[in-house]
Design brief:
Structural class: alpha+beta
Order of helices and strands: HEHHEEEHEEEHHEEHHEEHHEEEHE
Strand content: 15-25%
Shape: globular
Number of domains: 1
Helix content: 25-40%
Number of helices: 11
Largest sheet: 10 strands, antiparallel
Length: 408
């Protein structure tokens, strides 16, 4: 990949952003009382559930997994809730903690529910899972130790175009992710080798997508392909990390980062990696990885360990493990499902690229919700609970005959 003179990797990718499509949306606070992120990280599953504003629950299914739907206080839109998945005998932090069968059962259940809600409301429904169980960066997802999805309909009213010059560097970086080019190349090769089934692939800036007709997509075979693909991307990411870092960790940032190898060693090891994987790497991705091997820096502290202020490339920390956002979109108009993979490698959350109708920066907690907003949220919660009757039965079949969900 050619980086313009006097430019940097991040600057080159920011120059690709179509700023006419980027919007901000303000969201409100719906309740002052909600379980904190710190509590969500540390509490045992049963205690955590007892403290949630529960909307519905599903009894234990495959592998003892339980599903709980909960109202949110700080939201992504005015139609939004969280769905948590856990079990009594050990933590479930992200989809990495599922077996292959559990991955299919959990996301298949989510998609069935999304189908019912989409048909009921005639709106696209989004199911977004942020995952970063190995990463302690403050710009990672706020709850790393508890599997959960954001089940929502993007907010269209109140959206406004952004002025890129008025955004913080952190906000601008939330819209790009150079490493997604590598993920896209690897995904295309993986699907070509194993057979994509119903999935058709498409690249995007900072993410890539797979799409399929709705019913073929919600099958064990189609969902298994997604789980296997994500595992393959994780293996490749580990190989890239091993080429440029020595596995040791620094502590001065307050958010442990890997320590880079010396530049000659990085470049030699990366050259070996590029040669071994030349069959699927595009020239652009190979250039990006070579650039990384040349210029990766030891992580520099920010103003404080929880700060999202980024003033230098060394403060745009590389994630310790493959992190980011998975996003299913069930389309009411086309009866198709889209699966977005938005890795979070360079610095910021992958969700901003895929959680709205175009790249969306959500400005959370902009005052208390109005009566109209509270009503809209309550109506959405009621629609999801009403749709559970069908989704619950379908999930029960996949989870070896469990009974349907119950309302809280």
């Amino acid at each position: 990949m050619l980086i313009p003179a006097r430019s940097t990797l991040l600057a080159a990718f920011l120059a690709r952003v179509d700023w006419t499509r980027v919007c901000k949306v303000d969201t409100r606070r719906y309740s002052p009382h909600y379980v904190t992120g710190a509590d969500a990280e540390r509490l045992p599953w049963s205690v955590f559930v007892d403290r949630l504003p529960v909307l519905f629950t599903c009894p234990p299914g495959l592998g003892g997994l339980e599903i709980v739907g909960a109202a949110k206080s700080v939201t992504w839109s005015d139609r939004d809730l969280n769905i948590y998945v856990g079990r009594q005998d050990g933590p479930v932090r992200s989809f990495w903690d599922f077996t292959a069968d559990e991955f299919v059962a959990v996301f298949g259940w989510h998609l069935e529910l999304a189908c019912q809600v989409s048909a009921m409301l005639d709106r696209d429904v989004y199911v977004t899972h942020g995952f970063n169980p190995e990463d302690t960066s403050p710009d990672a997802h706020s709850v790393a130790a508890r599997f959960h999805t954001h089940f929502h309909i993007p907010q269209t009213h109140g959206r406004c175009r952004v002025d890129p010059h008025r955004l913080t560097h952190f906000e601008r970086l939330a819209l790009v992710e150079p490493y997604s080019e590598v993920c896209w190349d690897r995904a295309a090769a993986f699907l070509a080798d194993r057979g994509p089934g119903p999935w058709l692939t498409a690249p995007g800036l900072g993410f890539f997508s797979l799409a399929a007709p709705l019913r073929p997509a919600i099958t064990t075979a189609a969902l298994s392909v997604l789980g296997q693909l994500l595992g393959d991307l994780h293996v490749v990411y580990r190989q890239v990390v091993a080429a440029v870092t020595d596995g040791g960790e620094e502590s001065r940032t307050g958010c442990a980062r890997y320590v880079p190898r010396t530049r000659p060693e990085r470049e030699a090891r990366m050259a070996t990696f590029l040669a071994a994987n030349a069959g699927w790497l595009s020239g652009e991705s190979a250039g990006l990885l070579a650039y990384l091997a040349q210029y990766v820096k030891p992580a520099a502290p920010r103003e404080n360990p929880r700060s999202t202020r980024i003033a230098s490339a060394a403060q745009a920390w590389i994630a310790k493990g493959l992190s980011g956002a998975l996003n299913f979109v069930v389309s009411a108009a086309t009866e198709r499902v889209r699966f977005d993979v938005a890795p979070r490698v360079i610095s910021t959350s992958g969700a901003a690229k895929v959680i709205g109708a175009g790249p969306t920066l959500v400005v959370k907690d902009q005052g208390p919700a109005s009566v109209a907003e509270q009503t809209r949220m309550a109506d959405f919660h009621a629609a999801v609970v009403a749709a559970l009757a069908t989704a619950g039965r379908l999930c029960a079949g996949a989870a070896a005959g469990n009974s349907a969900p119950r309302r809280a």
